[in-house]
Amino acid sequence: MKPEVWRGMGLKDEEYNMIVAILGRDPNYVELGMYSVMWSEHCSYKNSKEVLRLFPTKGENVLQGPGENAGIVDIGDGLAVCFKIESHNHPSAIEPYQGAATGVGGIIRDIFTMGARPVALLNSLRFGTLNERKVRYLFGGVVAGIAGYGNCIGIPTVAGEVYFDPCYQGNPLVNAMCVGIIEADKIRRGRATGVGNPVILAGARTGRDGMHGVTFASEELSDASEEKRPAVQVGDPFMEKLLMEACLELIENGDIVGIQDLGGAGLTCATSEMASRGGTGLEIELDRVPCREEGMTAYEIMISESQERMLMVVTPDKEEKVHAVFRRWGVPSTTIGKVTGDGMLRVRKAGEVAAEVPARSLAEDAPVYCPAFKEPEYIKQTSELDLSRLPDVTDAAGALLALLGSPNIASKEWVYHQYDHMVRTCTVVLPGSDAAVIRIRGTAKGLAMTTDCNARYTYLDPYIGGMIAVAEAARNITCSGAEPLAVTDNLNFGNPEKPEIFWQFRRAVEGMSEACRYFGTPVIGGNVSFYNETNGEAIFPTPTVGMVGLLSDVTRHCTQDFRQEGDRIILLGDTFDELGGSEYLYVLYGETRGKPPALDLAREKALQQAVLAAIREGLAVSAHDLSEGGLAVALSECCIGQEVGASVNLSTGGLRTDSLLFGESQGRVIISTRPENTEKLLALAGEYGVPSRAIGTTGGTELIISVDGNEKVRLPVPELAKKWRGAIPCLMA
Amino acid sequence: MKFGVVVFPGSNCDLDAYHAIRDVLRHPVEYIWHQEESVAGFDCIVLPGGFSYGDYLRSGAIARFSPVMKSVVEFAASGGLVFGICNGFQVLVEVGLLPGALYRNTGLQFRCQFTNLVVENRNTPFTIAVEPGRVLKIPIAHGEGNYYADAQTLRAMEQNGQIVFRYATAGGEVTKDANPNGSLYNIAGVCNENKNVLGMMPHPERSVERILGSQDGLVIFESLVRYREGLR
Prior knowledge:
Distance between the termini of chain B: 11 Å
Distance between the termini of chain A: 54 Å
Structural class of chain B: alpha/beta
Largest interface: A-B, 32 and 31 residues
Number of helices of chain A: 26
Strand order of the largest sheet of chain A: 8-10-7-11-9-12-13
Number of strands of chain A: 28
Radius of gyration of chain A: 26 Å
Helix content of chain B: 10-25%
CATH class of chain B: Alpha Beta
Strand content of chain B: 15-25%
Oligomer: heterodimer
Number of helices of chain B: 5
Strand order of the largest sheet of chain B: 2-1-3-4-11-10-9-6-7
Strand content of chain A: 15-25%
């Protein structure tokens, strides 16, 4: 075989030699294809594995950590929550609708594969700037694709985040997260056990779509990437809905031994991983695989990434019953092989053995690399920010309106009005607050969920940025009245073979790990997406955190909206002269520079405990975390929801006015409280050692902010709302 | 009063309707599989929201051919109560139990949001419990809810009181801004000549509990119960 063949599939020469050593012979073309997809970064995590070990993954409530299709956390009453986030960046860059849609389809399968009923979807999206026509096309297509899939299958899309920055111009990020609920004793795993047990393939027919999708995902994008369009799959949410109902019925009835979805690397991945986890082998007959077109080769069938397919192992006595259930749901299913005891993945076609390799070697024996790392040069330049050369804000009202009109801060209604966020009638806090809350039917409990990452911080300091991503997620969960449970992460980075990129990756994971440890929120699963570069330019490091929290009493949830006249507004936490990496600096000066705000984990944790206690004791009418745009933007958002104004008096205390109003110091939350509860709330904050201050009162139709007795902002709430709501529709019109 | 909720392949609000009837309205309810050929024994048939058969063709265009629909049409002809919500409304239009058609939203996007409805005819089995002047806050979630009927049909419907709900402001004004999908004259729900078949794009089953942001949808289910009890 010529080196061009394996190199063309993305394998390095030394990797080819390893394959030869494993097999004791040259692989044939089918086998080579199978190794190339399984040993891609996407499937094998060969570049990231060592660093990912830094994450805390254990906890007393963790029922399933990383390594399965999704992680699972116990939430009491015999129930558990199952969740995971996954990227579909490269497909979405080429074909935004289908790329995003199949990203949603894939993550839903990961959840019901475990036996969990999917109950909510979230996402985290990044695009270039909306003044570019191509970016508007990508943004519109991705949102429509997410909507098209999630709405059809009937799982509410309840939360998410969208940011825009030129660094994502050619390489958008599309991370989709799914949350499911499962009875703790009904968890299913992707294991092929029981020699002789039949192996059943169910769902859509196998076609020529998504060929080498994982290989495509494991290389940089370039102008030639358009030619990779055949690597993008096409989604069929209707088929997935039927497949999901059938699989959940089978799992509920205990009819399945092991089950796994077919996603990246298709049949090759599902068969080799199931056999490898089960310590068994599999023998499959490709002539039995229902195909969309005639003449598909063994190679094509083995690596096709056609969507909406599941592989399962059942006992012989259940085989007919399983097929009958699929028939009733109108889902094609076929027995394609059986479990063997010899550890080999043996693939037959037309009476011949088309491939025969140790299953474990595909799933587990990919090389592990420890790429070199080096601090990038840019850090020295970007970290310099001389505030003394920056004039303090003079037109605070103008700056506030500019920030509210920035797509990064502006309302995302244009996005989430396209998502059915209410189906299943469990969504208690709709999109637009700090975290979404859903109730768990049949119990008093609720789940809060959010996705978060400020990639500007991670770019300026990956370690601090990584910590902040976790801290902010936990703060959002807390502000909704829930206790943070666990994390799923989606690590989006550039090419890890570049030492500067790998340095970003390492530092971000170190920062996230420390914060996860501190907040007691283990990482129970996730996804790594490398090679997010276009023509050699990497995106900002974007380690997105998906977090889920638990409310023991869902009626005790909290939202960010000021509710009524006359409530006192309390600011918890300290403000510093921190403008580095702020949206203010970006919007007003076009700069991404400085050091991100500092994060003191102890103070952050104390703040969150105080907020949670305040909500639980009924002292908080509303709670809102301070993030992009700082205090002034947060106050505006609190006012806009129910159109309740506010009058606020601040003192600089030696700070710059712009830091005070728009700085993004961490560990801060605004709570509104009934006047008679003000003292109780301040005392409670004191008990947790959290600085707190009554800064104003709700009411009226305007937001009025005075600093040291001078009125800096006086804007009618409808004007704030118009700017905030109108920004994205106006850019997309 | 016994309700039946039809389950087509791709229905996804069947659970929500079932829950609203069983746990909030507290009346008996059962699912009816799309291959059933009889709906005997039920007092009201609910066609729920969702994407029947994926709605890859025109919404509801395939579901109308389900075996169960033949008996639903007969049930309606004999005066039985048939309630189509969202995709169920689309199916009822396709099968000819309701006049008109549902086009794609004028904005060409799916829309999920709360809307306010004025009740134009309180003298139907679906609205008799609604207090005069009450505006109902009920959410929509659809991509094809833009109601259309030709001028002649519409005139006849108006005269016969078949326009039941219109999108309005919170204060009950029927304005262009309050129309989320481009529906003709803000029409959100219509009934047949005999008033025993109603289709609406908004989802009353999503607004039956305070924790979901509105309880205004409950009055529609309560109307059905009151109407049925009145017959006894």
